């Protein structure tokens, strides 16, 4: 069996991975099975260098706040600010503390430094402003959108009116609302009014796009549209936070991934003339199947961003799942996918899922992880990925 499995695997290189992908790929999703493990981020950095130098990729997007990501992008494209500033302001979820993320920005800036603007690499976040403790206030995104439009159009809402409706940011960011929907402001009268305003402002942004792009620039309009998507998505998410039904958590998980998919879609369209994009996030956000997890003792399921964007891009979306073998005393059972892949001789491998399925002579059982932050791959759905990247030990 090990010899047959070896026929489906190659030592990890960027070329070995891309050899398994459709030449039509415009968005490559590279998943990770858990956060906070440098081995996966370092592998991502290595892959990006290959994609940029040999495959024509010109951008990367991470599971990080899309608005914060503008600060990191300004640093790597134009050298705005310092690397320390980009790390502190350009990431969410604590990802700015990662040495591998720091090396990512450092390398991208060095690559861009002496290249013309159309050849420079871009950095994006594609998550919403959604920290673990809860969603952000809609103020930054909504007021940035309003200010952009107000500079060129006559609006029937003033900035002061928006600030009055939003009120204190603490009302929106109250961590108690995460578990107690009655503490959320999401369905208060002013929140409902703000949702209508956000919708109207985005409609104006679209209706006046020809004038606005010529009066400012296509890049300025794109950022304004990012603010519009974010404001609408945040207000929708806050409304979901106020939901008192049993499906509340599943709804929130679905809303978050829908926001991610919309951001990925916008990034791919912006980058269409420059090259493909690498997206890096948890496997649960990039896989083509429904995602499953337990939260507060209840099973939850929702369609991932990868599944949603896959319906829009077709074979232009490719997905490479990543998993690992041993982690200290956590050693996978031989009858699991990870246990079987641990028999491979390589420290890091790229596996062809189709060839793997063809040589399997038994049904594999899902791995039960010791660490609750790790989600093992479902051996029954590996054929839904274009490649599997396996790290033998972390």
Automatic annotation (TrEMBL):
Keyword Hydrolase assigned: yes
Tagged with keyword Kinase: no
Pfam families tied to this protein: Erythro_esteras
Assigned EC number: 3.1.1.-
Superkingdom, taxonomy of origin: Bacteria
GO MF annotations, alphabetized: hydrolase activity
EC top class named in words: hydrolase
Keywords: Hydrolase
Coiled-coil stretches noted in the UniProt entry, renumbered to this chain: none
PANTHER family the UniProt entry points to: ESTERASE, PUTATIVE (AFU_ORTHOLOGUE AFUA_1G05850)-RELATED
Protein name: Erythromycin esterase family protein
Lineage, top ranks: Bacteria, Bacillati, Actinomycetota, Actinomycetes, Micromonosporales
């Amino acid at each position: 069996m090990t010899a047959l499995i070896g026929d489906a695997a190659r030592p990890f290189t960027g070329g070995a991975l891309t050899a398994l992908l459709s030449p039509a790929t415009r968005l490559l999703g590279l998943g990770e099975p858990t956060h906070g493990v440098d081995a996966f981020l370092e592998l991502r950095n290595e892959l990006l260098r290959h994609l940029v130098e040999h495959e024509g990729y010109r951008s990367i997007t991470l599971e990080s706040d899309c608005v914060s990501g503008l600060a990191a992008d300004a640093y790597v494209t134009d050298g705005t600010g310092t690397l320390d500033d980009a790390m502190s302001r350009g990431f969410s979820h604590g990802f700015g503390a990662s040495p591998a993320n720091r090396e990512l920005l450092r390398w991208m800036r060095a690559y861009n430094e002496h290249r013309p603007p159309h050849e420079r690499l871009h950095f994006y976040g594609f998550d919403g402003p959604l920290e673990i403790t809860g969603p952000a206030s809609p103020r930054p995104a909504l007021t940035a959108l309003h200010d952009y439009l107000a500079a060129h159009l006559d609006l029937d809402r003033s900035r002061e009116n928006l600030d009055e409706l939003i009120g204190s940011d603490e009302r929106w960011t109250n961590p108690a609302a995460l578990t107690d929907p009655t503490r959320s402001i999401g369905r208060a009268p002013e929140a409902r009014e703000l949702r209508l305003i956000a919708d109207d402002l985005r409609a104006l942004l679209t209706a006046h796009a020809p004038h606005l792009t010529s009066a400012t620039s296509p890049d300025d309009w794109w950022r304004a549209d990012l603010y519009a998507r974010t404001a609408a998505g945040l207000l929708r998410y806050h409304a979901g936070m106020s939901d008192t039904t049993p499906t509340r958590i599943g709804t929130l998980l679905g809303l978050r991934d829908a926001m991610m998919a919309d951001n990925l879609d916008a990034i791919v369209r912006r980058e269409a003339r420059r090259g493909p994009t690498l997206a890096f996030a948890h496997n649960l956000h990039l896989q083509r199947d429904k995602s499953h997890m337990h939260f507060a003792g209840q099973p939850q399921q929702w369609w991932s961003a990868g599944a949603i964007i896959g319906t829009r891009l077709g074979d232009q979306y490719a997905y490479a799942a990543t998993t690992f073998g041993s982690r200290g005393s956590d050693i996978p059972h031989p009858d699991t996918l990870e246990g079987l892949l641990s028999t491979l001789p390589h420290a890091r491998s790229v596996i062809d899922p189709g060839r793997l399925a063809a040589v399997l002579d038994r049904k594999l059982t899902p791995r039960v992880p010791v660490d609750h932050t790790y989600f093992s791959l479902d051996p029954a759905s590996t054929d839904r990925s274009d490649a599997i990247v396996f790290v033998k030990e972390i």
